[in-house]
Amino acid sequence: MRDEVHEYGSDALTIREAVERDVPDLVTLLADDPLGSQREAPGPEQMSAYQSAFQAIVERADHTLLVADRGGRPVAVLQLSFLPHLTYTGGWRAQIEGVRVCAELRATGLGRRLLEEAIDRARDRGCHLVQLTTDARRPAARAFYERLGFQATHHGMKMHLVGSAPGDATTLTDEAP
Protein backbone atom coordinates (compact mmCIF):
# COMPACT_ATOMS: atom_id res chain seq x y z
CA MET A 1 0.00 0.00 0.00
CA ARG A 2 1.28 3.45 -0.83
CA ASP A 3 -0.11 6.76 0.38
CA GLU A 4 0.36 9.80 -1.82
CA VAL A 5 -0.16 13.41 -0.75
CA HIS A 6 -1.44 15.98 -3.23
CA GLU A 7 -2.44 19.62 -2.85
CA TYR A 8 -5.90 20.72 -4.01
CA GLY A 9 -6.42 24.36 -3.22
CA SER A 10 -5.23 25.00 0.31
CA ASP A 11 -5.96 21.48 1.56
CA ALA A 12 -3.60 18.53 1.39
CA LEU A 13 -5.22 15.26 0.37
CA THR A 14 -3.85 11.78 0.75
CA ILE A 15 -4.78 8.97 -1.59
CA ARG A 16 -4.79 5.77 0.43
CA GLU A 17 -6.57 2.48 0.86
CA ALA A 18 -9.76 2.60 2.90
CA VAL A 19 -9.86 1.40 6.49
CA GLU A 20 -12.86 0.16 8.46
CA ARG A 21 -13.53 3.47 10.22
CA ASP A 22 -14.08 5.03 6.75
CA VAL A 23 -17.16 2.94 5.95
CA PRO A 24 -19.85 5.40 7.16
CA ASP A 25 -18.22 8.24 5.22
CA LEU A 26 -17.89 6.05 2.11
CA VAL A 27 -21.56 5.12 2.23
CA THR A 28 -22.44 8.81 2.59
CA LEU A 29 -20.34 9.57 -0.51
CA LEU A 30 -22.02 6.79 -2.49
CA ALA A 31 -25.48 8.10 -1.52
CA ASP A 32 -24.67 11.73 -2.32
CA ASP A 33 -25.98 11.94 -5.86
CA PRO A 34 -29.39 11.50 -7.50
CA LEU A 35 -28.82 7.85 -8.46
CA GLY A 36 -26.94 6.82 -5.34
CA SER A 37 -29.61 8.29 -3.11
CA GLN A 38 -32.08 5.80 -4.60
CA ARG A 39 -30.01 2.69 -3.85
CA GLU A 40 -27.86 3.43 -0.81
CA ALA A 41 -28.99 3.51 2.82
CA PRO A 42 -26.43 5.43 4.89
CA GLY A 43 -28.34 5.09 8.16
CA PRO A 44 -27.30 2.86 11.06
CA GLU A 45 -29.88 0.16 10.27
CA GLN A 46 -27.94 -0.95 7.14
CA MET A 47 -24.39 -0.25 8.34
CA SER A 48 -23.71 -3.89 9.24
CA ALA A 49 -24.34 -4.89 5.60
CA TYR A 50 -21.86 -2.24 4.42
CA GLN A 51 -19.34 -3.35 7.07
CA SER A 52 -19.65 -6.96 5.86
CA ALA A 53 -19.11 -5.89 2.25
CA PHE A 54 -16.10 -3.81 3.30
CA GLN A 55 -14.57 -6.83 5.07
CA ALA A 56 -15.15 -9.03 2.02
CA ILE A 57 -13.38 -6.47 -0.17
CA VAL A 58 -10.32 -5.87 2.03
CA GLU A 59 -9.82 -9.57 2.78
CA ARG A 60 -9.20 -10.27 -0.91
CA ALA A 61 -5.87 -9.33 -2.43
CA ASP A 62 -7.45 -8.56 -5.81
CA HIS A 63 -9.83 -5.90 -4.48
CA THR A 64 -9.32 -2.55 -2.82
CA LEU A 65 -11.13 0.66 -2.02
CA LEU A 66 -9.09 3.76 -2.76
CA VAL A 67 -9.99 6.97 -0.96
CA ALA A 68 -8.86 10.55 -1.11
CA ASP A 69 -8.55 11.70 2.49
CA ARG A 70 -8.69 15.28 3.72
CA GLY A 71 -8.09 15.79 7.41
CA GLY A 72 -8.79 12.16 8.25
CA ARG A 73 -12.10 12.09 6.33
CA PRO A 74 -12.66 10.40 2.96
CA VAL A 75 -13.79 12.90 0.33
CA ALA A 76 -13.61 10.59 -2.71
CA VAL A 77 -13.72 6.84 -3.27
CA LEU A 78 -13.49 4.15 -5.93
CA GLN A 79 -13.37 0.38 -5.88
CA LEU A 80 -10.58 -1.29 -7.85
CA SER A 81 -10.75 -5.00 -8.64
CA PHE A 82 -8.27 -7.13 -10.55
CA LEU A 83 -9.81 -9.88 -12.66
CA PRO A 84 -8.10 -12.78 -14.44
CA HIS A 85 -9.39 -13.61 -17.93
CA LEU A 86 -8.72 -16.28 -20.51
CA THR A 87 -8.96 -13.64 -23.24
CA TYR A 88 -5.90 -11.64 -24.23
CA THR A 89 -3.76 -14.72 -23.66
CA GLY A 90 -4.82 -15.13 -20.07
CA GLY A 91 -4.43 -11.45 -19.31
CA TRP A 92 -5.55 -9.54 -16.24
CA ARG A 93 -7.81 -6.52 -16.34
CA ALA A 94 -8.72 -3.92 -13.76
CA GLN A 95 -12.34 -3.01 -13.06
CA ILE A 96 -13.17 0.39 -11.55
CA GLU A 97 -16.54 0.84 -9.85
CA GLY A 98 -18.30 3.15 -7.43
CA VAL A 99 -16.41 6.35 -8.24
CA ARG A 100 -17.60 9.29 -6.14
CA VAL A 101 -16.12 12.68 -5.26
CA CYS A 102 -17.81 14.85 -2.65
CA ALA A 103 -19.80 17.68 -4.20
CA GLU A 104 -17.56 20.55 -3.06
CA LEU A 105 -14.45 18.97 -4.62
CA ARG A 106 -15.86 18.02 -8.00
CA ALA A 107 -14.12 19.69 -10.96
CA THR A 108 -10.93 20.30 -8.92
CA GLY A 109 -8.81 17.53 -10.45
CA LEU A 110 -9.28 15.20 -7.49
CA GLY A 111 -11.32 12.64 -9.44
CA ARG A 112 -8.67 12.64 -12.16
CA ARG A 113 -5.93 12.01 -9.61
CA LEU A 114 -7.86 9.18 -7.97
CA LEU A 115 -8.47 7.50 -11.35
CA GLU A 116 -4.81 7.99 -12.31
CA GLU A 117 -3.79 6.21 -9.10
CA ALA A 118 -6.10 3.30 -9.97
CA ILE A 119 -4.68 3.15 -13.51
CA ASP A 120 -1.12 3.23 -12.15
CA ARG A 121 -1.94 0.32 -9.85
CA ALA A 122 -3.38 -1.59 -12.82
CA ARG A 123 -0.15 -1.03 -14.76
CA ASP A 124 1.88 -2.14 -11.74
CA ARG A 125 -0.15 -5.38 -11.64
CA GLY A 126 0.48 -6.04 -15.35
CA CYS A 127 -3.12 -5.51 -16.46
CA HIS A 128 -3.70 -5.18 -20.19
CA LEU A 129 -6.96 -3.28 -19.79
CA VAL A 130 -8.77 -0.99 -17.37
CA GLN A 131 -12.53 -1.02 -17.67
CA LEU A 132 -15.43 0.72 -16.02
CA THR A 133 -19.07 1.35 -16.59
CA THR A 134 -20.98 4.56 -16.07
CA ASP A 135 -24.71 4.95 -15.87
CA ALA A 136 -26.20 6.33 -19.09
CA ARG A 137 -28.00 8.92 -16.95
CA ARG A 138 -24.62 10.45 -16.04
CA PRO A 139 -23.41 12.19 -19.22
CA ALA A 140 -20.96 14.39 -17.29
CA ALA A 141 -19.31 11.27 -15.84
CA ARG A 142 -18.99 9.76 -19.31
CA ALA A 143 -17.36 12.96 -20.60
CA PHE A 144 -14.98 12.91 -17.61
CA TYR A 145 -13.90 9.32 -18.34
CA GLU A 146 -13.46 10.10 -22.03
CA ARG A 147 -11.14 13.02 -21.15
CA LEU A 148 -9.03 10.49 -19.22
CA GLY A 149 -8.73 8.31 -22.34
CA PHE A 150 -11.51 5.78 -21.77
CA GLN A 151 -13.46 4.85 -24.90
CA ALA A 152 -17.04 3.64 -25.14
CA THR A 153 -16.18 0.58 -27.26
CA HIS A 154 -18.83 -1.78 -25.86
CA HIS A 155 -22.42 -1.58 -24.73
CA GLY A 156 -22.67 -2.68 -21.12
CA MET A 157 -25.61 -4.68 -19.91
CA LYS A 158 -26.70 -5.43 -16.37
CA MET A 159 -29.41 -7.52 -14.80
CA HIS A 160 -30.62 -6.83 -11.30
CA LEU A 161 -31.62 -10.14 -9.76
CA VAL A 162 -34.93 -10.44 -7.95
CA GLY A 163 -34.50 -9.42 -4.34
CA SER A 164 -30.88 -8.33 -4.78
CA ALA A 165 -31.57 -4.64 -4.31
CA PRO A 166 -34.43 -2.65 -2.81
CA GLY A 167 -37.32 -2.44 -5.26
CA ASP A 168 -35.85 -4.86 -7.81
CA ALA A 169 -38.39 -7.12 -9.45
CA THR A 170 -36.58 -8.30 -12.59
CA THR A 171 -37.56 -11.69 -13.96
CA LEU A 172 -36.26 -13.56 -16.97
CA THR A 173 -38.43 -13.85 -20.06
CA ASP A 174 -37.92 -15.19 -23.56
CA GLU A 175 -39.25 -12.00 -25.11
CA ALA A 176 -36.97 -9.45 -26.73
CA PRO A 177 -37.28 -5.91 -25.39
Question: Could you explain how this protein is built, in words?
Answer:
The chain has 177 residues and is α+β, with helices and mostly antiparallel strands. The chain has helices spanning 23-31, 36-39, 47-58, 87-90, 110-124, 139-147, and strands spanning 4-8, 11-17, 63-70, 73-84, 92-101, 129-132. Helix 5 links the parallel strand 5 (92-101) and strand 6. The radius of gyration is 17 Å and the shape is globular. Residues 6-10 and 167-177 have low confidence and may be disordered.
- CATH class placement: Alpha Beta
What structural category characterises the helix and strand content?
A: alpha+beta
CATH level-four homologous superfamily name: Gcn5-related N-acetyltransferase (GNAT)
- What is the count of structural domains? 1
> Major sheet: order of its strands?
1-2-3-4-5-6
Main β-sheet, in a few words?
6 strands, mixed
Beta-strand level of the residues, as a percent range? Answer: 25-35%
Give the low-pLDDT segments: 6-10, 167-177
Number of beta strands: 6
CATH topology term? Aminopeptidase
CATH second-level architecture: 3-Layer(aba) Sandwich
**Mass-distribution shape:** globular
Q: Give, in order, the helices and strands.
A: EEHHHEEHEHEH
Overall helicity: 25-40%
The whole-angstrom Rg is 17 Å
Helical stretch count? 6
Alpha-carbon distance between the two ends? 45 Å
